[in-house]
Amino acid sequence: MPLFFYWFRCTVRFWNCLLNTNNSLLLKIVQADLRFAYVQGSWTCQFLHALNDVPNSDTFSTAVRTQNNIHVGKFETVLREHIISDWRAAQLPRQMHTYHTHFFFFGGGCYTVLSKGLTE
Question: Which domain holds residue 25?
Answer without folding.
Answer: 3-90
